[in-house]
Design goal:
The complex is a heterodimer.
Chain A: H1 3-35, H2 42-57, H3 65-88, H4 96-118, E1 133-135, E2 138-140, H5 142-163, H6 166-176, H7 178-183, H8 188-213, H9 220-235, H10 240-260, H11 266-280, H12 283-286
Helix pairs in contact in A: 1-5, 1-6, 1-8, 1-9, 1-10, 2-3, 2-4, 2-8, 2-9, 3-8, 5-6, 5-8, 6-8, 9-10, 9-11, 10-11
Chain B: H1 2-18, E1 28-34, H2 41-60, E2 69-75, H3 80-92, E3 98-100, H4 105-117, E4 121-124, E5 139-141, H5 149-159, E6 164-170, H6 173-188, E7 192-199, H7 207-213, E8 220-224, H8 227-239, E9 245-248, H9 255-261, E10 269-273, H10 280-293, H11 302-319, H12 323-334, E11 338-339, E12 342-343, E13 357-363, E14 366-369
Parallel strand pairs in B: 1-2, 1-3, 3-4, 4-5, 6-7, 6-8, 8-9, 9-10
Antiparallel strand pairs in B: 10-13, 11-12, 13-14
Helix pairs in contact in B: 2-11, 3-4, 5-6, 8-9, 11-12
Chain lengths: ~290, ~375
């Protein structure tokens, strides 16, 4: 591989990783914006989304990928609603730290539940590994192509939903000020439910893409949550485009950075970015919203 | 008043439950801190099967001096912190005199000081890292140290004509130790290491590391990796069109790795402490395993765990059930003892003195011994 395609491939890898982080971050920032807390159980929506697909593709359903995706996404949406209904709604007014800890507890529960059903072992969807197609000296597999394509579709869908629909307007109003939105007659309950479903579906799509690209295991959500969180912070709370950009940025930073420093520090890059941002804006986790 | 009554009742129940029932022959408890969940649960589950098999056999023959062996399993969740927790619990709550330690040299080495401090024997059946038993004289292993494996891997590389290789390795005690052993021996044999790429375990994306390793299209890449990491790496390398001869250590040599990687694992080679499997003893072991579990694919390091139980049992027979007694009796118990994995005599550092190394290769989806 000559020099140019070497660097280009790295950038491509960065974009691919970034797309997945972006999907995770968009779901996370949505809940953060609308309900004003960090959903630490978001990783489990990611993970359960991937496992639901596994469930529908395996016996006794045995559905092909393109069909099984729909019930998987639907179930994950339901899971998101269930999470809100059972854990977060009763403590809607509590302080941020309480919500954060409740989310952590939920995360542990869901991870163990997944392990209970599917075991702790790493699993795959069982697709044959295939060599990527080459163009301009870069390698891209069909699955990676799908990652980029699906992310673009999701971004377009999110845009249409948020900026071209009434439901989107309600959600944006909610994220500005929950009480004011309620007083002005916006159906806040409906908007909140919609936010959870969208967040869960984005997480599930990201999880499925991640599992297609790599593999499935109960810790796959939480392992990536920190990157989603860093991307959310970069983009600013509740800012969907920021989350998209943040995700891409982290993906690129990780992959390009590894060319120059030891790959052993790869995970550290997202952490360092996150620490720097938190140092600059510490009230993000505990106090008032930023911008 | 009612609350007090409830409290008294609860305390009474606990007190009742914790009084040991006096029985004629109380079982001998041995602790086992294994990965039963988490990323290396595939190891822990396999060990448990082989250990249960050995315990069953020993108990069927009457146990040790009439007392049956009972293994107390604790889940170490595949990370060093929970390994320490599991070992501490076994030491302080279950008060076992000997513990079978966790897989993963970093995990094991995190728990070794704890066992040594508390004067409890800790044994490993799969820790290959150089210096595993450094923590003290209560730490033993029945698996050979990588100081012995490095030179064999170097010899493999040189003998196949690979004079220049990049080396990828897992960034932990095991990977580092084997990397150092390999690099030292390789350089002495005239080889050149073109790049050293450390990477984290438990990750899902190694594409950048693979890209860096494949720079210049080297004919061979040394990759000191585990099962899951290796599978992901070989798959991603295949997708990226990287064509090279992979040379690995012993940790990736598992049917599970081949299962996860599919055809991307074809042709992967490595060294491993070889155990001749065509002996009557090994075949008998395989047969009993098959009878109990239905298939004859011995899980990775399972045979060493099986031997570990026997070595421990012999030590208990000679030295009694105190930790100190077991510790003193282990060298004599193991000396000359031929388990299914060979002669288990300890050397001065409480590691096996004897080890042979073979070469494995993935051919047609199966792990085989490589014949030149």
């Amino acid at each position: 591989m000559d020099s140019i395609s070497y660097y280009l491939q790295t950038v491509l890898n960065g974009i691919l990783a970034g797309c997945i982080y972006a999907l995770f971050a968009m779901g996370l920032t949505l809940i953060y914006g609308v309900l004003n807390f960090v959903n630490f159980a978001h990783g489990e929506l990611i993970m359960w989304g991937a496992y639901f697909l596994f469930l529908f593709m395996a016996e006794p359903f045995g559905l092909p990928l393109y069909v099984a995706v729909f019930p998987a996404l639907a179930l994950t949406g339901c899971l998101g609603l269930a999470m809100d209904y059972s854990v977060f709604r009763p403590i809607r007014r509590a302080n941020r730290l309480t919500l954060l800890i409740a989310a952590m507890g939920l995360s542990v529960f869901l991870r163990n539940a997944a392990q209970f059903f599917w075991g702790a072992e790493v699993r795959t969807y069982g697709f044959e590994v295939m060599a990527g197609t080459q163009f301009f000296g870069l390698y891209l597999t069909t699955q990676q192509f799908a990652i980029i394509g699906v992310t673009i579709l999701c971004v377009i869908a999110v845009y249409l939903l948020f900026f071209r629909s009434r439901l989107g307007k309600s959600m944006r109003a909610l994220s500005d000020n929950l009480d004011l939105a309620r007083i002005s007659g916006i159906d806040t309950k409906r908007a909140i439910r919609a936010a959870w479903v969208i967040s869960a579906v984005l997480a599930a799509i990201g999880g499925i893409l991640l599992a297609l690209d790599t593999n499935l295991h109960p810790e796959m959500g939480i392992a990536n949550l920190i990157k989603a969180f860093a991307a959310t912070l970069i983009g600013g709370v509740g800012n969907l485009w920021g989350a998209l950009l943040g995700g891409l940025l982290i993906g690129l930073a990780e992959n390009i950075g590894v060319l120059f420093i030891s790959p052993g520090y790869k995970d550290g890059i997202a952490f360092v970015i996150m620490v720097l941002i938190l140092l600059a804006r510490p009230y993000v986790i505990i106090g008032e919203r930023s911008d | 008043m009612k609350k007090l009554a409830v409290l008294v009742a609860v305390v009474a129940i606990f007190a009742f439950l914790s009084v040991p029932t006096a029985r004629a022959a109380e079982p001998i408890k041995i602790g086992a801190a294994f990965a039963l969940s988490g990323s290396i649960a595939v190891y822990g589950e396999g060990f448990k099967k082989c250990i249960d098999l050995a315990v069953e056999e020993i108990n069927a023959k009457g146990g040790i001096k009439g007392r049956k062996i009972e293994i107390v399993y604790e889940d170490n969740k595949s990370n060093p912190k929970d390994c320490v927790t599991a070992v501490r619990k076994l030491i302080t709550v279950d008060k076992v005199p000997v513990i079978f330690g966790p897989a993963g040299s970093s995990n094991f080495m995190a728990t070794a000081p704890v066992a040594q401090e508390n004067k409890v024997v800790l044994m490993s059946a799969q820790g290959a890292a150089v210096g595993l038993t450094k923590a003290g004289d209560y730490i033993f292993r029945v698996f050979p140290s990588d100081t012995l494996q490095g030179p064999h891997l170097a010899k493999l590389a040189i003998s196949k004509g690979y004079k220049k290789v990049p080396v990828m390795y897992i960034n932990n005690d095991w990977g580092l130790g084997l990397k150092n052993a390999f690099v030292d021996a390789y350089k002495k044999m005239g080889g050149t290491v073109t790049d050293l790429i450390a990477y984290d375990e438990k990750k899902t994306d190694y594409r950048t590391e693979l890209l860096r390793a494949s720079k210049g299209a080297p004919p061979a890449i040394v990759n000191l990796t585990y099962i899951n990491e290796g599978a992901v790496q070989f798959k991603q390398a295949f997708e990226m069109g990287i064509k090279t001869q992979w040379l690995c250590g012993s940790a990736a040599r598992a049917p599970k790795m081949v299962e996860l990687a599919g055809k991307a694992a074809e042709g992967v080679m490595g060294t491993y402490p070889s155990v001749p499997q065509n002996t009557k003893q090994y075949q008998a072991f395989k047969d009993t395993y098959k009878k109990k579990y239905g298939d004859d694919k011995i899980p990775i390091f399972g045979d060493y765990n099986y031997d570990m139980v026997y070595v421990a049992a012999r030590a208990i027979e000679r030295g009694g059930t105190t930790a100190d007694g077991i510790r003193k009796a282990l060298p004599a118990a193991a000396k000359g003892f031929k388990g299914v994995t060979g002669d288990k005599t300890f050397d001065d550092e409480r590691s096996p003195k004897f080890a042979e190394y073979g070469i494995w290769i993935v051919k047609d989806g199966k792990i085989e011994d490589y014949r030149k």
